[in-house]
Amino acid sequence: MNSNLRYLILLLFISSCGIMHNVPLSQKPNSFVKPNISNSFVDQNGNFYPDNWRKTYGNPPQNGKREAYSLMKIATDRGIVDELNGFEVKKLKELKEHVKSKKRIFIFVHGFNATNQEVNESYGYIQKLIKINAKEDEIIRFYWDGLSITNPFAGVKVWFTATSFSQMAGEFGLRRVLNAISNKDVYIISHSRGASVVLSALSKPSFNEKFVKEIKEVHKVDVEKASSLLENQNRITCIMLAPAIGLIDFKSNEMGNDSFCSFSPQIKKIHITTNNTDKMLKKFFGFLADKLTPTDLGYKDDVYNELIKHYSCIDKTDFSGMESHAFNQYIRNPKFKTMLKANGIALK
């Protein structure tokens, strides 16, 4: 056994605790805030938290790595699946009606290992930065179970779990939000692993057979029955800050085919950042690169250079020189304002 592998095993062993599920603080997490803010919060499988969720579904487990907090599994065990599904249908219909008269939709998507407090602070900063028309624009604050840690050694273990959570949040959560929107200019601003949430909403993500079987048998969620992205004549621009994804996230493994996936014509632009001094992305790209899902799109130019051979909609802005991976630092970098302006988003 080489020294790098021994280190990885030791790191995983000492990080066996201190991992918490990212759950809502509010008992009405999927709600509307006047005049133009919508909150959308999904669990580890992309199901929307219902009103008074804690009373019905109980407190989340103390160890988010070892124990799931799956609304669908709990609903199945308690015989209330129809209630959970009914709530989701109702809320999505309300969202569709709520944004019907709006012209622009801004959707914010956080990354992994992010507490509600940190996410809300970053979302609030972006809201204050962008010039918003309360009557014509809507802001959707999207939250998913990217887990969070209290043990500083648990970061790697969080990553292993959050990779699949991000895909489920996108395919079952964010995609249904997008399907409730039609004929709008949609701007999705994501950070870190939030890029996986976005890509999983826009195209079918690749899951391994073991995961598909487990999620169906244990959590009662059939990945193969996920609704496709509807062609709703939206015009979608994605701004991905520090995207913790790689080439594999743009590929499909359906029927053994390892080709690049195709995007809906609704996708007008994917504007990413690259940063060869981002310590978090660099750490993952180091000796752990072969053990973890790739994060090198936000770190290496050659990944971007490969993607532009297949996609004309991809652009980049270089943030190299900034060492932080934090959401609140990327959005405070002056280059973020440049990205917003380049995509036709006016600032206050």
Keywords:
15% strand; Rossmann fold; 12 helices; disordered N terminus; globular; 36% helix; two-stranded antiparallel sheet; 348 residues
Q: Do you know the CATH architecture?
A: 3-Layer(aba) Sandwich
Give me the count of strands.
10
Number of helices: 12
| Overall geometric form | globular
- What are the secondary-structure elements, in order, as H or E? HEEEHHHEHEEHEHHEEHHEHH
Query: What's the CATH topology name?
Result: Rossmann fold
Spans of at least 5 consecutive residues with low confidence:
1-16
Sketch the major β-sheet.
8 strands, mixed
Distance between the termini: 56 Å
Structure commentary:
- The protein is of the alpha/beta class.
- The chain has a single domain (3-342), classed as Rossmann fold.
- The chain has twelve helices and ten strands.
- The protein has an eight-stranded mixed sheet, sandwiched between helices. A two-stranded antiparallel sheet has the order 1-6.
- A hairpin with a 3-residue loop joins strand 2 (32-33) and strand 3 (37-41).
- The longest helix has 25 residues, at 155-179.
- It is globular, with a radius of gyration of 19 Å.
- The protein starts with a helix and ends in a 6-residue tail after the last helix.
- The relative contact order is 0.13.
